[in-house]
Specification:
306 residues; mainly beta; paralog of FGE (formylglycine-generating enzyme); four-stranded mixed sheet; three-stranded antiparallel sheet; globular
Length: 306
């Protein structure tokens, strides 16, 4: 883990997406943070020790999804699989497929493996899966404010985790998408999918992959207006056999049946023409029961300040 000194910083941005505003001053305490996202090798040790079964590996309960077509109630997860002729970038269903058998062991679905990817971030993990790992490790998931402060690496108000240029001197600083998403990936960074967690430069605090590669879970409930690091009603209860015992509800938006948490960091699918969320200030909503092929997490350990 990496020591993050804490302090006062300007959270958010008013230059890109409305949910990132307003910029406001936030203070975070000192904490330790995993230097990389949790890897497949680390998650494998957790599963071996606990017998945890991820949400993607379990058939959904029909009672939790009223109105769902029975043939869609199968164990699986969302996999990036663009259709050949995409005409409308507003319809994400043209490049996401809920694929049977896709889970952390089988990133592309049945028949795929983790061979050669032990040092890649674990994917296809829902919020409860990330939280279960954190508790097993004696840690916690970061708040949104902690995550953003750490990702900035001491560069308050900078656009990116390394400064104000996306590609300084033409250098690819993170695993993102180059080309016209989702049909043309020029792979200037060397990767079409996930990459090893230390493949790109670390930030000012020594953290890797805070931008790109995979989105990361945080504790915060999502709200379309930036509310900063408000008190949490955390967290989704654990089931000792794996999965969720009961659904929690977002106290801020109780009308949403499946609550959403804030994701940070962007992923290898973020592109200039579609999703410019490869920045510390960027944020995205994700339903707690959802897992995808570009979603991971890292943990923190808080310490009392003297």
């Amino acid at each position: 883990m990496i020591w993050v000194p804490g302090g006062l910083y300007h959270m958010g941005s008013e230059k890109y997406y409305p949910e990132e505003a307003p910029v406001h001053r936030v203070k975070v305490g000192v904490f330790w943070m995993d230097r990389t996202p949790v890897t497949n090798a680390q998650f494998k040790r957790f599963v071996k020790a606990t017998g945890h079964v991820t949400e993607a590996e379990r058939k959904p309960n029909a009672k939790d999804y009223p109105g769902a077509r029975p043939e869609m109630l199968f164990a699986g997860s969302l996999v990036f699989a663009p259709q050949p002729n995409i005409t409308d970038l507003r319809d994400w269903r043209q490049w996401w497929e809920f694929r049977k058998g896709a889970d952390w062991r089988h990133p592309e679905g049945r028949g795929s493996t983790l061979r050669g990817r032990d040092d890649h971030p674990v994917v296809h993990v829902a919020y409860a899966d990330a939280l279960a790992f954190a508790r097993w490790a004696g840690k916690d998931l970061p708040t949104e404010a902690e995550w953003e402060f750490a990702a900035r690496g001491g560069l308050d108000r900078a656009e990116f985790a390394w400064g104000d240029e996306l590609n300084p001197d033409g250098r690819q600083m993170a695993n993102t998408w180059q080309g016209a998403f989702p049909v043309e990936n020029q792979m200037l960074d060397g990767y079409a999918g996930t990459s090893p967690v230390e493949a790109f430069p670390q930030n000012g605090y020594g953290l890797f992959d805070v931008i790109g590669n995979c989105w990361e879970w945080t504790q915060d409930w999502y709200n379309s207006a930036h509310t900063g690091d408000a008190p949490k009603a955390c967290c989704v209860p654990e089931n000792p056999r794996g999965g969720v015992m009961e659904r929690s509800f977002d106290p801020a938006l109780p009308q949403i049946r499946i609550p959403r948490r804030v994701l940070k960091g962007g992923s290898h699918l973020c592109a200039p023409n579609y999703c410019q969320r490869y920045r510390p200030a960027a944020r995205h909503a994700e339903a707690v029961d959802t897992s995808t092929s570009h979603l991971s997490f890292r943990c923190v350990l808080r310490v009392a300040e003297e």
